[in-house]
Design goal:
91 residues, mainly alpha
């Protein structure tokens, strides 16, 4: 099995910071839209086992690297918040 480790890393970041990002709607559809947008702007890092994803995550212990991911996540959260496509927000 081939896994994009960045998907797990970005999902964990989104779960951790979603309240601080001031997202208008936190339904699963909007959160998935934010995750998809941010992953499209992030270089994929593939591993062959989910347990190996922690090695990729360890590279982001550096504050500047993590901040870069958070900035991408915040930008994507704003895009989705400004124009949510989910039914609960009338999209």
């Amino acid at each position: 099995m081939v896994i994009n480790a960045m998907e797990r890393i970005m999902k964990d970041l989104l779960d951790e910071y979603k309240h601080g990002l001031h997202i208008k709607c936190t339904c699963s559809e909007c959160l998935d839209d934010i995750l998809a947008l941010s992953l499209n702007q992030t270089k994929p890092r593939y591993v062959t086992n989910i347990d190996k994803a922690m090695y990729v995550k360890a590279e982001f212990v550096d504050k500047q690297a993590m901040t870069s991911l958070l900035v991408k996540l915040a930008e994507c959260a704003k895009i989705v918040s400004d124009k949510p496509l989910c039914e609960s927000q009338g999209g």
